[in-house]
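Retro notes (design track)

What went well: tokenization of the new backbones is finally stable.
What didn't: we kept losing track of which sequence belonged to which structure.
Fix going forward: every design gets posted as structure first, then sequence, in one message. First example under the new rule, 466 residues:
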């Protein structure tokens, strides 16, 4: 009986262990979802990683090369640059990454001016205004980069930084600080009111084994408080700048106003990297501003960081930019030490296959005709995966709310909505090119029939002559 019980217990433990093993394997796996995000994703499937493995290996080799510190990942919009970089970050955890995103979808600057050439009253390009505009744009870009660097870490990681932020002090920290201040004030009262300060004098020491513990504790608390105050005062003055000192004794504390934000706060940037352990800085969406001057300053900053003796590690910059940003053939090789071109994952030849994969995720097989799927993707210019995913998601939502007997027509309208959103929005107002085309259908038919009638009349005349 005892042996049978032991066998049952062992069998139960084996089953429990196997279930626990299966649970541990599957607890980190996300359930399959039919909702596909438009944001860059981290690839986890072996098949997907195998496709981008050449890019991952090339990026790893370039980061390990000591002479390469400015790396460009180039490709068209929607080619998968961000997906490759995020997947690389997920696989290679030996690096400390800091991501800087400068996404801006507006073509106007802060004063409402359009990007591009500045036109004066005579209708000609104004070079002075253009220089001012570019300078302001570069300054705002540098400020945005600095904000993302310093606001990424906790204030405790860079305590000596001049960029002060609001600290979210916990109640127990406030209570501890208040109690410490009260104890320090009590120690001062005991030292000077009850003459405990004379006990510090060596002439009053004697060989008696009796100790005045109140005096010892008061002295320790007093000097501990003085030490904390001295540390605070030294840090306060070390974080201040003296910009102006006149003969009258006028003293002005503040920051200099410099054209380059990086040059103005270079000490802060070096201090940031000295205190933190980031060694790979990923900068994305810098190409949306159509300016290449900022890359020169970032390259100079990278050289200063890597040549500084205060930073005992190599710091690499990775840029995700589009190919057409640099029109000059020499600019690309001048700004970057290494360039990794990305071949788009989706194009007109395989867009139909990708669309069919999306259809399978929602179990909508045989809803759209195969010929229509191949035809419609050929009409989409500059197609990318995000655009295709958004078209399909909108089609699914419209299909559930607007029942239709011909899903192909509904899908075609959703494609038009994504390709020409302005014209689609004018349909409800009875405006736009599409509305004009549809409303003038009878006119187009009459023009076509008139052309055909003219051809018929011409042929009849030729027949009569024959």
């Amino acid at each position: 009986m005892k042996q049978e019980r032991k066998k049952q217990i062992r069998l139960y433990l084996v089953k429990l262990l196997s279930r626990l093993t299966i649970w541990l394997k599957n607890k980190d796996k996300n359930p399959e979802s039919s909702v596909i995000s438009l944001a860059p994703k981290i690839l986890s499937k072996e098949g997907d990683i195998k496709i981008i493995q050449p890019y991952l290996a090339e990026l790893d080799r370039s980061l390990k090369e000591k002479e390469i510190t400015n790396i460009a990942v180039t490709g068209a919009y929607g080619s998968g640059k961000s997906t490759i970089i995020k997947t690389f970050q997920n696989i290679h955890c030996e690096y400390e990454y800091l991501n800087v995103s400068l996404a801006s979808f507006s073509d106007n600057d802060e004063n409402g001016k359009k990007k591009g050439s500045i036109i004066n009253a005579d209708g000609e390009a104004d070079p002075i205004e253009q220089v001012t505009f570019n300078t302001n744009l570069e300054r705002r870009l540098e400020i945005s980069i600095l904000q993302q660097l310093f606001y990424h870490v906790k204030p405790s990681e860079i305590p000596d930084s001049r960029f002060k932020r609001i600290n979210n002090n916990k109640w127990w920290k406030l209570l501890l600080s208040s109690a410490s201040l009260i104890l320090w004030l009590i120690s001062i009262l005991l030292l000077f009111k009850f003459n405990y300060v004379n006990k510090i004098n060596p002439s009053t020491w004697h060989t008696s084994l009796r100790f005045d513990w109140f005096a010892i504790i008061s002295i320790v608390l007093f000097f501990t408080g003085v030490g904390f105050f001295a540390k605070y005062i030294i840090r306060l003055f070390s974080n201040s700048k003296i910009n102006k000192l006149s003969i009258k004794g006028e003293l002005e504390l503040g920051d200099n106003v410099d054209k380059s934000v990086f040059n103005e706060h270079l000490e802060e940037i070096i201090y940031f990297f000295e205190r933190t352990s980031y060694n790979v800085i990923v900068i994305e969406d810098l190409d949306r501003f159509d300016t290449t001057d900022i890359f020169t300053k970032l390259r100079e900053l990278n050289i200063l960081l890597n040549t500084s003796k205060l930073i005992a590690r190599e710091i690499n910059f990775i840029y995700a930019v589009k190919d057409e940003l640099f029109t000059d053939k020499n600019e690309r090789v001048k700004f970057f030490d290494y360039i990794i071109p990305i071949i788009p994952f989706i194009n007109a030849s395989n867009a139909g296959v990708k669309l069919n994969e999306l259809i399978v995720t929602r179990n909508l097989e045989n809803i759209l005709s195969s010929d229509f799927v191949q035809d419609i993707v050929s009409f989409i210019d500059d197609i990318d995966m995000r655009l295709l995913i958004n078209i399909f998601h909108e089609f699914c939502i419209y299909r559930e709310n607007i029942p239709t007997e011909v899903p192909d027509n509904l899908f075609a309208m959703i494609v038009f909505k994504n390709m020409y959103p302005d014209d689609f929005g004018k349909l409800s107002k009875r405006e736009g090119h599409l509305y004009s085309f549809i409303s003038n259908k009878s006119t187009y038919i009459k023009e076509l029939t008139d052309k055909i009638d003219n051809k018929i009349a011409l042929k009849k005349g030729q027949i009569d002559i024959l």
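Added context from the reviewer: Residues 3 and 134 are 86 Å apart (CA to CA).
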